[in-house]
Design brief:
The protein is an alpha/beta fold and 227 residues long. The protein is built from ten helices and five strands, in the order βαβααβαβααβαααα. A five-stranded parallel β-sheet has the order 2-3-1-4-5.
Amino acid sequence: MKLKYGNIYLCGFMGSGKTATAKALAELADMDFFDTDAETAKIMRRAPADFFSGGRRKFRAAESRAVARAARRGNLAVALGGGSLLAAANRRMVRDSGALVYLKCPQKILLRRLRGAKDRPLLRGYAGAALAQRISSLLKQRQKHYLLADFAVFSAATAPEQTAAAIMKKLGMAPLEPVQDLAFVAKMAILKPSRSAAKRASSTRGCKLSSAKAQAKSAICSRNRRF
């Protein structure tokens, strides 16, 4: 796990909550938010729904440029495009510039969230059983890359702020602001805190913002020195 530049990358299938969680993470950890799909849209001057209109190769090249821009910066909470890790160069840039977190979400939840979506070019023209099969096929192609993450959290049963808090806890970072039911969050993710840890999490909810902010920055700096 590397946080050389302090970036935290969120990977996962489309609809898993990467953008919402990255925004919440940026807010809680005093980081800047970065969305590779949004950056790719700027590079291509096209809406996400039209990403493939110029050809898939052109889109993937623009996506790699977006990932490179994130890798060159620091202190970012990055929402990666669902297929960003398909390219070996992108995987290297991510691994060399931060920690990678996989947002896991059951296929049935993904299907519910993606049903009727009009801004997902890879799902255009699919519905019903065909859509379910399409999601299953794409997920199978990408799963091995998602599993390269430093760790995974389940994003289906918690709010973005709670998922972000679970990620921070795993990385040893304290949220800038109190997050409700932090002990529950840890349980719903892959974290299993002891009773004393849950008690400590509860007792810190009223901490002042300045103190929590210093802890979050200290966590990143300390981890940076390790690498």
